[in-house]
From TrEMBL:
Gene3D superfamilies: 2,3-Dihydroxybiphenyl 1,2-Dioxygenase, domain 1 (3.10.180.10). It holds the Pfam family 3-dmu-9_3-mt. Residues 5-131 form the PhnB-like domain. This is PhnB protein.
Length: 140
């Protein structure tokens, strides 16, 4: 048995749109269950109770819409999602896809001290992505 970490994103009415967007970027079909489908009266019927995008490449993210009767503050400092890619092409494809209508490009795509290709941006949903090509790191 193995344990994996999956990023879980919380929204207020945007989970479906976000999952569809990430599915498009990473070539995967989102899976969505709404509060209405689950007969759960705690949320808006059309809002997402449970959703995920799991791509053949290994990309995996989950998301849901926080119930309207619960306090929801996405926070002053959003959670950063680290996307470690094996090739420059994977980095470029992910970065360019997520950059569409991005709120803010924090670091343009380019080389860094720790990766041959790295970039950081906040997408149109307010999620900040750190995207790089994974290589062995040498402190020396």
């Amino acid at each position: 048995m193995s344990i994996t970490t999956t990023t879980h994103l919380n929204f207020r009415g945007q989970a479906r749109e976000a999952l569809e967007f990430y599915g498009e970027v990473f070539d995967a079909q989102p899976v969505v269950v709404t509060y209405g489908q689950a007969h759960d009266p705690q949320g808006e019927a059309e809002h997402v109770l449970w959703g995920e995008v799991a791509a053949p490449s290994g990309f995996h993210v989950m998301a849901y819409d926080v119930q309207t009767d619960r306090d929801f503050d996405p926070g002053v400092h959003p959670v950063y999602v680290s996307l470690r890619c094996g090739t420059e092409q994977e980095v470029t494809t992910a970065y360019e896809g997520l950059a569409r209508a991005a709120r803010h490009v924090r670091t343009p795509l380019g080389p860094s001290a720790f990766s041959p290709l790295y970039g950081m941006l906040t997408d149109r949903f307010g999620v900040t992505w750190v995207i790089d090509q994974a290589v062995a790191f040498s402190a020396g």
